[in-house]
Each structure stands twice: as C-alpha cells, then as structure tokens.
Write a structure and sequence with these properties.
GTP-binding, alpha/beta, P-loop_NTPase, GTPase activity, 19 helices, transducer, single chain, 52% helix, Rossmann fold, 9 strands, nucleotide-binding, elongated
C-alpha cells in the first residue's frame, strides 16, 4: 500500500512511531495538544502585540547633522511650521525680540567696522572709502543700540561664544561673534522669557507688566533709530568698505538689514518667513517633539551643535535613529570655518560626510543629504565668484549654476559610494531651507520616506 511518508521526508519525520502502544499514543496526543495550545497562545499574544504597536505607532527619531551654520536649526523650524502649526503660532510673536537682536547685531557690526576704519585711517591715505563726520555722527546716534543688544542677550540667557584660532587681518574677525543659548535652555526656554499669556498675567501681573514694559522700551529704541540704521546700511562709503573687506553681510545668518523699514515699527509682528530666517544658535543637543497628524506619529528631532568642539556629542545619538538628515551648505565653497580660518568649509563638510557614511553602526540607518543654501550659491555665481578658484578639482567646467550643482551632487555621491560599508540608496535634495514653500514640498517627500522606513524597521509594513 502506498504511504506518503515513504516518499515525503517531512511526512516521515512527523509520522507516529511504528508499533506505537495505546499508552504511548495517548501520551503523544496529550503532548501535541499542549504544544498546540502553547503555540496558539503565542500566536494570539503576537497578534495583540502587533495591534498594540499599530495603535501606539512607533516614535520616529530623526537626527539633524552638519557643520555650524549649515541650516540644521532652520530645517527644524520648517518641520515645526509644517507639522506643529499650533505651537508655531503660539511662539511666533516671541521671536520679535530675537529678530530685533539679529538686526541690532548687524548694525553694531557695521559700527565696529567704522570705528576701526576711523581709528586706523591716515589723513594722507586716499585708498580707503571716505568716512566723514556724518559717519561719526551716525555712530554716536546709534550707540544706544549697544545697550539694547546687551539687555536682550542677558534676558535670553545668551552668551557670545565663538571658537577661533585665527582672528584674521588687523585682529578683527571677518564675521561678528554670535550670541547663543545653552542647551539646558534652548529655544523654548529662551522664548518663554518674551511671552505674555493671559494666565501669566493672572498668576503674576507684576512680572507680566514688567515684561511688556521692557519689550516696549526695546521697540522704542529700535523705532527711534530706524532712520539712522537705514542711512548707515545704504551709505555708499559703508558699502564700499564692506566690499573691500570682502564681507557679504547679506549671506550672514539672521540678516535683516534690508527689512529695517518693516521691522523697526511699533506694531511689527514677525511673519513665518522672518522666524525661519531668524538666528538663535543653540549650544549642545536639543530635542524637539512633533505630532504628525497624518499617520498619527510622534516625531522626535534632535538638533546638535555643529562646531568642532560640539561634534563629540553626536556619537551617543547614532544607535537609535530612524533617519539622519545631513545638511551640506554648498554655497560655502569659498568660505573658512569660523573656529579655524585655515580650513575650507566645503572641505570640512566633505570630511564630515565621509565619516558619517563610513560608520558601520549607521550602515542600516537611512541617511538623507540636503545640499543646502542653493540660493546663496546662485547669488555668488551671478556675482562672478569662480568655483575653480577655491575648488581645484572643479577644473574647467562651466561656472553655470546647474553645472556647479551637478558637480557637488556627484562628488557627495561618490564619497558615499566609496566609503559606505554596505551599498545603500542615495537620497539627496537640493534645498534653500529659508524658502518655506519649496522646503515644505521637500519635507513631505522626506517625511514619507522616513515614515515608510521606520514602519518597515518596526515590522509594521
């Protein structure tokens, strides 16, 4: 008689033993029933766990990396604008003081440059731009802004902390020192010091009134200096001085000198774009939470300091991230690191990207590259800055915008290909993160990709 177990190894392995006694058969059946019961319980628990995980949804963790001033904080603000609109609107008016501080900082930088020029110019030297009595008068009339700057920084809990190994010609830094808030404070704590809520007034009316009066005083000084600030910035001799020193203030973070007429008013309210452009540097690591309604997921985003001394704090965050967004400011091909003037910023970014791609512990982590500050890149190229002067490997390629972008994109791709422990998909976006509209479209694409990858890792897809 034909038996399937004679030809099927699996059937033969699970077939009852030959000449099995009734007692042995009963014991075997009881063991099989118990095994089925345990297996069914395990299957049911796994099903319940899967349902619970689907209900809870995994927390999506994203780390923002890149050198200082690469656009990490601006990218974070874009995520907040896109996915945490209610919180964004609550905080937006509080950015007024920071935007005023950005504006004042730029004016004080111009005043310092004028003071230096007036102190070092010889009466017989005709080469520098002609700084006259008008500039001395503007310097005196704008002096109150220094006190306002110090007061705002004190209220923010800010400290001008910069690393530099080379102060540059004449002992003056090509770029002004920056204010920053410590990691224990961050944006939220800093902004709280400028917010006035109804419940604050109920709980402590005196403190709320003092906050309002202080804000009115600051605004009053800024408004009173508006005409002189505009005259200083638009002055032809000042513009010539900046040109000769090769200082492009319009490329600095927190640049608002072209918006003096709009910002220096009593009823000024920050726009979304103003907040995106505002500069408030944080020292250390900041964690921000967003609830993305589409899909019902909580996102935790980590913004870390990008200066060389801050990079040692990156490593502990590498082993628990769903994705890393690396920001590479490709407009910086002709710039030097603020903390070490001997190092080209683009070369430093290449080095960081190579290190990131080569880490074995990140071989399974989704890495997304933002080639950022394309708007500033276009401005430089239109102004006649030649890439090959600063990047010898660019060779004789055309200095056209699209050619330059394509070159940088292929170079980063080649670094990833050569140094990744395992070949991975290459995600790259050409961005200008101060452009909220185009960045919103990019973020939607990034969000979908990160979320799918996160669900796949959590075994939900």
């Amino acid at each position: 008689m034909f038996r399937s177990s004679d030809h099927d190894p699996l059937a033969a392995a699970i077939a009852p033993p030959k000449n099995e006694s009734p007692a042995a058969r009963a014991a075997r059946l009881r063991a099989e029933a118990e095994a089925r019961r345990v297996s069914d319980e395990i299957d049911e628990q796994l099903k319940l766990d899967r349902v619970a995980r689907r209900r809870q949804r995994p927390c999506v963790k994203v780390l923002l990396l890149g050198q200082s001033e690469s656009g990490k904080s601006t990218t974070l603000k874009n995520f907040q604008l896109q996915y945490a609109r209610e919180t964004w609107l609550e905080e937006r008016s509080s950015w007024r003081a920071i935007i005023q501080l950005n504006l004042i900082r730029s004016i004080v930088t111009l005043l310092d440059l004028i003071s230096e020029a007036l102190a070092t110019t010889s009466p017989f030297d005709t080469s520098p731009p002609p700084l006259t009595e008008k500039h001395r008068l503007l310097r005196l009339r704008l002096a109150p802004l220094r006190g306002v700057q110090q007061d705002l920084q004190r209220r923010l809990g800010a400290a001008a902390v910069e690393e530099s190994t080379d102060p540059g010609p004449g002992g003056v830094l090509p770029r002004p020192s920056e204010f920053a808030v410590r990691s224990r404070d961050g944006w939220r704590s800093a902004l709280e010091r400028f917010r006035t809520r109804p419940q604050d007034a109920q709980e402590n009316a005196r403190a709320a009134d003092a906050r309002v009066r202080k804000a009115a005083e600051v605004t009053g000084v800024v408004v009173g200096c508006a005409e002189d600030m505009r005259a200083l910035w638009e002055d032809s001799a000042v513009q010539e001085m900046l040109r000769r020193k090769k200082i492009r203030m319009e490329e600095e973070p927190g640049f608002f000198l072209d918006d003096i007429e709009r910002i220096a008013t009593k009823d000024y309210e920050p726009s979304d774009n103003d907040v995106i452009r505002a500069r408030l540097r944080t020292l250390g690591v900041q964690e921000y939470s967003f609830w993305v309604e589409q899909g019902g997921h909580e996102w935790l985003m980590y913004d870390v300091g990008g200066t060389r001394s801050s990079r040692a704090h990156w490593y502990p965050y590498f082993d628990d991230m769903d994705a890393i967004i690396f920001l590479a400011p490709i407009s910086s091909f002709d710039e030097r690191l603020r903390e070490d003037r001997r190092v080209n910023r683009l070369e430093d970014t290449y080095m960081l990207w190579q290190t990131l791609c080569s880490l074995q512990m990140l071989s399974k982590t989704q890495i997304i590259l933002f080639l950022n500050k394309c708007d500033l890149l276009e401005q430089k190229l239109r102004a006649g800055v030649r890439v090959r002067t600063h990047v010898p490997s660019f060779g004789d390629r055309s200095n056209e915008v699209e050619t330059v972008k394509k070159y940088f994109q292929s170079h980063f791709k080649e670094i990833a290909r050569q140094h990744s422990p395992e070949q991975r998909r290459y995600y790259v976006h050409l961005t200008s993160v101060i452009d909220t509209r185009s960045t919103a479209a990019t973020l939607r694409t990034v969000e979908d990709g990160i979320l799918r990858n996160s669900l796949r890792r959590a075994d939900l897809l």
